[in-house]
Amino acid sequence: METDKNPVLFLTGVLLLLIQDISFLLTVFLNPGIPPRDMSIHSEAYINKLIRSHLYCNICKVVYREGQEQTEHCPDCGFCIEGLDHHCPWSSKCIGSGNMTAFKFFLGSTVILMIYLFTGGMLVVAAS
Ligand SMILES: [Zn+2]
Ligand SMILES: [Zn+2]
């Protein structure tokens, strides 16, 4: 089998690589979920809200929004991130609610691309 001259196999590889690269770039450049700052920071209602709840970051000066219990401060980024999963050292970015879908696409396409490359390599070795 001439695997090195099969256009379908070649285009499949290019497509997988494009999906992986684009999803990685989206993971890096999308807002991971930095919450908006509360503009009523000096109001009495704001201070009462701080006293009642512990959903507040003293560094970012933000009150976490309702239903955003997973909001945490990332010491690497220096920001609070809604739906924080982890800080990814490979993309140098937090993975949160804003870029989780792109991150999952990146992981999935990387695994599929690795399988594709390994299988293709084995076919080339077997054909030679
Ligand atoms: Zn914070
Ligand atoms: Zn981070």
UniProtKB/TrEMBL annotation:
Biological process per Gene Ontology, one example term: protein targeting to membrane
* Bilayer topology annotation: Multi-pass membrane protein
* Catalytic activity field: L-cysteinyl-[protein] + hexadecanoyl-CoA = S-hexadecanoyl-L-cysteinyl-[protein] + CoA
- Transmembrane spans: 7-30, 105-127
EC number, as in UniProt? 2.3.1.225
Please provide an example of a Pfam family that matches this protein in its UniProt record.
Answer: DHHC
Coiled coil regions, renumbered to chain: none
Q: What Gene Ontology molecular-function terms does this entry list?
A: protein-cysteine S-palmitoyltransferase activity
The superkingdom of the source organism is Eukaryota
User: Which parts of the sequence belong to the Palmitoyltransferase DHHC domain?
Assistant: 55-119
What are the record keywords, sorted? Acyltransferase, Membrane, Transferase, Transmembrane, Transmembrane helix
Q: Where found, per UniProt?
A: Membrane
> Gene Ontology terms, cellular component aspect?
endoplasmic reticulum; Golgi apparatus; membrane
**What remark about domains does the record contain?**
The DHHC domain is required for palmitoyltransferase activity.
Family label = Belongs to the DHHC palmitoyltransferase family.
Q: In its UniProt entry, what is this protein called?
A: Palmitoyltransferase
Per the UniProt record, the source organism is Halteria grandinella
